[in-house]
Specification:
alpha+beta, Beta-lactamase, two-stranded antiparallel sheet, 14 helices, 9 strands, about 10% strand, signal
């Protein structure tokens, strides 16, 4: 067999295995359960209602889970389940740190949008002007725009498809260790030299694309994505328990420890797995630790605005739909699903031993955050809660109408 044919076959195998079996840091869309009809009496408070039905919806897939909600009255509610790990047994709450994987991309994309709002970058900027002249680019790579990178519409693959990546992924299945070290290095831009754009232009989730974005931000600003996000986003929003270098946070020793779940395939469910560490171009794509309270603060800014002009312009840019479709419409880092009259804009993250979700419904003024310290594909709770909240709102309106008559 010719070497290039063998490598092509391995790449196909790698893509299939990683999308079906792991795809850590991937954007795997949750399915929303059909909400149950509300069973409360007219006049009960929305908080009491949520307390009645939300615990029954939780199928515990992790040693710990924290759920945070913003309701239509702009009130925040939290539910806590479990402990950080079997050794320390710290009860979790809304201030417990979790690794959130690809939610990192949302923060990095919004910091990029702030730079655009400030006029330092433009969505139409192309890689041929954003990267150093020494970086070799194919004709197709030269045309990739900043907007295409942040919306996953560049055509770049999920990750580099080669034998070293396949070998690292196979090792991960048995040891849980990080297999994205090559994307973390500056070698990541080497993949652009022979990039050929796919024939059909549509969203293709790309860790590679966000690693390239991190490289671009560092070259253009002199700062890594983590520092840009801290200065342009976390500080203005008051997100004080969020960091891409979590060891600097006082709450880090009490963090939720990651556990095996659906993955790694050959590690027993519930066993502690290694933390993933990044130091280069994957920092802004997957190394964020944060808590439920900070993520609700982030969500609140997307519902009501932040009061910071540049941040609010960035939020408007990131929530705009750039590739419309019924499910998984492409925003900037966010994705939007439509269920009848309800649109849910959300992000999900999977890394090491963690799963995370943040979703908002801007029309009905709802937000939900779900953090778990187990890697599980069963990440549909956030969608289901948002759909149930609309069902509750409809019943409240019906109660009001009945009382008025």
């Amino acid at each position: 067999m010719k070497p290039h044919l063998r490598l092509a076959q391995l790449s196909v195998l790698l893509l299939g295995v990683m999308q079906a079996g792991c795809g850590t840091l991937s954007n795997v869309a949750p399915e929303a359960d059909v909400p149950q009809k509300a069973q409360r009496a007219c006049g009960e408070s929305s908080r009491r209602t949520i307390n009645q039905w939300l615990p029954a919806m939780v199928e515990q897939q992790s040693p710990a889970m924290v759920v945070g909600v913003i309701d239509a009255q702009n009130q925040r509610h939290y539910w806590r389940f479990g402990v950080t790990d079997s050794e320390h047994q710290y009860p979790v709450d809304e201030h417990t740190l979790f690794a959130v994987g690809s939610l990192s991309k949302g923060m990095t994309a919004e910091a990029t949008a702030v730079l655009v709002a400030q006029g330092r970058l433009h969505w139409s900027d192309r890689l041929e002007n954003l990267l150093p002249p020494s970086v070799k680019l194919s004709a197709d790579a030269k045309k990739i725009t900043l907007l295409q990178l942040v919306t996953h519409t560049s055509g770049l693959p999920r990750q580099n498809m080669d034998l070293p990546m396949l070998s690292a992924f196979i090792r991960y299945l048995g040891n849980g260790e990080n297999f994205y070290t090559d994307l973390d290095s500056d070698n990541v831009v080497a993949a652009l030299a022979d990039f050929s754009a796919p024939g059909r232009a549509e969203p293709r989730y790309s860790n590679l694309g966000y690693a390239v974005l991190n490289y671009v931000l560092h070259y253009q600003t002199g700062q890594r994505a983590d520092r840009l996000v801290q200065r342009l986003l976390f500080d203005p929003l008051g997100m004080r328990n969020s960091s891409f270098t979590p060891q600097t946070l006082k709450s880090y020793p009490l963090r939720a420890i990651g556990h095996a779940g659906s993955q790694p395939k050959f590690i027993p469910r519930g066993q502690v797995v290694p933390d993933w560490q990044f130091s280069g171009n994957m920092v802004g794509a997957g190394s964020l630790y944060t808590d439920t309270a900070d993520l609700l603060t982030f969500a609140a800014a997307h519902l009501d605005g932040s009061g910071n002009a540049a941040v609010d312009q960035a939020i408007q840019d990131t929530l705009q739909v750039y590739y419309p479709r019924h499910k998984e419409a492409a925003n900037i880092a966010w994705v939007t699903d439509t269920y009848g009259e309800q649109s849910i804009t959300y992000q999900v993250g999977y890394i090491g031993g963690y799963s995370s979700y943040i979703g908002i419904d801007r029309v009905h003024h709802f937000a939900v955050v779900v953090l778990q310290n187990s890697f599980t594909w069963q990440n549909n709770l956030g969608h289901s809660v948002l759909r149930q909240m609309v069902e509750e709102q409809h019943q409240a309106a019906a109660c009001h109408a009945a009382t008025a008559t």
